[in-house]
């Protein structure tokens, strides 16, 4: 297994790569991440901005986040897949949205942030029936 983080959007028009180990791996349950991803929380791999590159056409959306500083989310201009973030308060990092990784099984959360915003959309409740494949 390589030490590169590679991924792409749903349609394949945008590909990215970050060389080297991750700086952190986390799940964010802030309301902005929930709304941007359409899910209960966003799994994120934090990498060095100097080791990150992408090719393809992206569009951006910038919003002031919980830090009080602007955060830019980058998504595919064609299929709309949310791919990575570039926070203004930490220009030395890029936040890769782990669902777009070519090898998503490499993701291993080290911590969860904004857990107070976690809610039932999370789906990891012990009493909920789970199916390994498509539900019957």
TrEMBL record:
An MF annotation (GO) of this entry: carbon-sulfur lyase activity
Domain CENP-V/GFA: 5-106
Any Pfam family the entry gives: GFA
InterPro entries: CENP-V/GFA, Mss4-like_sf
Keyword Zinc assigned: yes
Keywords: Lyase, Metal-binding, Zinc
Family: Belongs to the Gfa family.
This protein's name: GFA family protein
Record lineage: Bacteria, Pseudomonadati, Pseudomonadota, Betaproteobacteria, Burkholderiales
């Amino acid at each position: 297994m390589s030490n590169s983080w590679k991924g792409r959007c749903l349609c394949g028009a945008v590909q990215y790569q970050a060389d080297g180990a991750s700086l952190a791996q986390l799940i964010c349950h802030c309301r902005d991440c929930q709304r941007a991803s359409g899910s209960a929380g966003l799994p994120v791999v934090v990498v060095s901005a100097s080791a990150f590159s992408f090719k393809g056409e992206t569009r951006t959306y910038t919003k002031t986040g919980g830090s009080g500083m602007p955060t830019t989310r980058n998504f595919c201009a064609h299929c709309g897949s949310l791919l990575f973030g570039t926070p203004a308060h930490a220009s030395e990092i890029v936040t890769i949205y782990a669902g777009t990784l070519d090898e998503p099984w490499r993701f291993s959360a080290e911590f969860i942030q904004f857990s107070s915003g976690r809610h039932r959309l999370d789906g990891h409740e012990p009493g909920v029936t789970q199916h390994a494949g498509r539900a019957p």
